[in-house]
Design goal:
mainly beta
Length: 96
């Protein structure tokens, strides 16, 4: 559901569990940031953010390839993971 012209709220409900992401977009409709609430430990529900830093064409599809994952804490952002996708395989269903 739209929040404003650059933001949407994605809601997923399954077996009574409801999850959401606030998704932010740039001028051309690419996702730039995804935000939700997650438990950082067994007691503290904190803001969890995935920042998308880049897109590339891989296997004839333009996909997000550079990500930073962080906790948005009261004392500031805590970055704990960065990812760079260099190859992708799709349409090959198999159990993993």
């Amino acid at each position: 559901m739209p929040v404003d012209t650059r933001t949407a709220k994605l809601v997923f409900v399954h077996n009574g569990l409801s999850l959401f992401f606030k998704i932010s977009f740039n001028d051309i409709g690419e996702i730039t940031e995804m935000e939700t609430k997650r438990y950082m430990d067994s007691k503290n529900l904190e803001t969890w953010v995935i920042k998308v830093a880049g897109y590339k064409e891989l296997n004839c599809m333009i996909i997000p390839t550079d990500f930073e994952v962080l906790w948005r804490l009261e004392k500031g952002d805590f970055s704990y993971a960065k990812f760079n996708i260099t190859q992708i395989e799709y349409d090959k269903p198999k159990e993993f």
